[in-house]
Amino acid sequence: xxxxxxxxxxxxxxxxxxxxxxxxxxxxxxxxxxxxxxxxxxxxxxxxxxxxxxxxxxxxxxxxxxxxxxxxxxxxxxxxxxxxxxxxxxxxxxxxxxxxxxxxxxxxxxxxxxxxxxxxxxxxxxxxxxxxxxxxxxxxxxxxxxxxxxxxxxxxxxxxxxxxxxxxxxxxxxxxxxxxxxxxxxxxxxxxxxxxxxxxxxxxxxxxxxxxxxxxxxxxxxxxxxxxxxxxxxxxxxxxxxxxxxxxxxxxxxxxxxxxxxxxxxxxxxxxxxxxxxxxxxxxxxxxxxxxxxxxxxxxxxxxxxxxxxxxxxxxxxxxx
Length: 321
Known about the structure:
By secondary structure, the protein is of the alpha/beta class. It has twelve helices and ten strands.
């Protein structure tokens, strides 16, 4: 499997190119289904499961939240030392929109995450959103404290611009703090924007962001790597205009879809898998955070663990040739 090593003064982990994302666990009604997905992921060579404090937090007390399901699975399987766990905290208040990047909020989120996950540490801890009005001088010492306490092993940020990452890491370097070492943003063969997705707190890969990641060889965890099923569903003619994947049905993305279908006909690769190979082939490391609703989808997606395209194929998929 394609992978990337993250290393600091205290820890070292190997992040796989395919991370199992659990934001959609709320769609099932029992642990047996959740557990079967995670069992299959590990069986097929997977090593990293991604979640967040805010996922499925509509349940009273968070008893059936994504993190809690993972915690019960880790306990039942006794496999904490064999799997990487990444989670996120500091999401803004979804009712008021107020920022939650203060120490008290982050302390609460991390403590609850560890409790639900039934562990005393997470391998990667992401800030789920940014608030550019809060100086990095206020944020980085909090995360460094979590790191020094051993409760988080690597610092990540989700939906932060590269300009903010650079600013934060400059401050960390100048003050002897643990830096941000990985970023999670929206990234797929299907281009997107905050306008398209209807959420201006998200960050999507664009030319400026791409140039920075390429220059600094900075690792990315890509959410919505399959564009919410855009390529798979549109290729089969299953998509409907009112479903999430229709957000991606721009003229440019439909042109990419045509290229994906052509490549699938030539190689036999399923349409859902091509975008994963595309991200595997970028000039910097990308771990695709994918989700499934059926076991066969897990098997299909995990076939992309070693799928890499050459530059000519990438240009073809990007509609550049």
